Known about the structure:
By secondary structure, the protein is mostly helical.
Amino acid sequence: MTTTDEAARISFLPVPDGSEVPEGVRRLWSKAQDNIGFVPNVFRAQAVNGEQFLAWWNYFNLLLNKEGHLSNAERELVAVVVSSVNRCLYCAVSHGAALRGYSGDAVKADAVAVNWRHARLSPRENALAEYAEKLTLHPAAVTEADLAPLRAAGLDDHQIVELVQVIGMFNMTNRVSSALGFVPNAEYHGQGR
């Protein structure tokens, strides 16, 4: 039987409170609380190394939350495909919620989180998912020929570079989240439904 403390754990490591983190982290926590109504557990758990967390967040935010070359739904699709392939609970749940929101299609988003090949993706989405899976599972096997289906689906050079960056970001973030046992916030499960 788990104790209340064990059931409430969000990481394998102790999580610092607001007095133990840099001011920039406290501001980010406050902004998240104001914008989405809760502080994502990944924000709290990674704050153990506050300055490193802020550096990660700045790049992550640039790739996922700013105007980019891919649509928000496409970037989140890739995030969920990579996270599903890597079996990263935190990222599959949290970015599954974002995909539901951006796509407006909870059924499709949930299918992507389990097995993207059964999600009835468009040809462009299929090309993104296929490439994301290959780069995640077999990075040394990726060749220039793997760009052909992306180009056939209409991606330009800027979109291809952004796609690769999002795939890389999620492969790294999945490993951090899984290695440190991050638990997704319960709030994610109801978003976009």
